[in-house]
Amino acid sequence: MTTLQKSTKYPLISIALHWFILVAVVGAYVCVWAKLYNPWHFFFGALALVLSVVRFVTMHALAKRKPAIIPPISPLQNLAALVIKIVLALGFIILPLQGLLGRAFYGRATDFWRVEIFPAFDVNPEIASKLLQGHVVFAYVLLGAIGLHAAAALFHHFVRKDNTLKRMM
Q1: Is residue 2 part of a domain?
Q2: In a 3-state reduction of DSSP, which class is residue 46?
Q3: How many domains does the chain have?
Q4: Does the pLDDT value for residue 38 go beyond 90?
Q5: Per its UniProt record, what Pfam families does this chain match (predicted)?
Q6: pLDDT at 66
Q7: Which of 49, 57, 56 is nearest to 117 (CA)?
């Protein structure tokens, strides 16, 4: 067994990206609920997008360094975890893109404190409306997936008493 296989935790970059993405996503949701749409909601959404792309790339590069769950979980739990991870990984990329593209098709650039982080496009209200409606619906779907992910981590920690949560701390 190599040193890489003996690790009980994910690599530090994976752990840091996981928690920074959480902060960015929570920031984006809080801004909506507090009606602080501009510029903070856009900033946190764009930050979640960038961090998620980096995490997606590093996740595949570091796949061999994934620590084992002890005691092991069932194939069904493994499948459920994989499905939720895919929904989350794609969601944290798709959701911000829907928002940025929706604004862009309304002819609005997305800026953060006067620094443009995403340009405006030619106005097309039909496309913009569909993108932003999808953005809202998908935000709730993603919130449900986040809730399931968090509940599963707590279930593993407090009920199964395995190392699932500890691997990401």
Answers
A1: no
A2: helix
A3: 1
A4: no
A5: Ni_hydr_CYTB
A6: 87
A7: 49
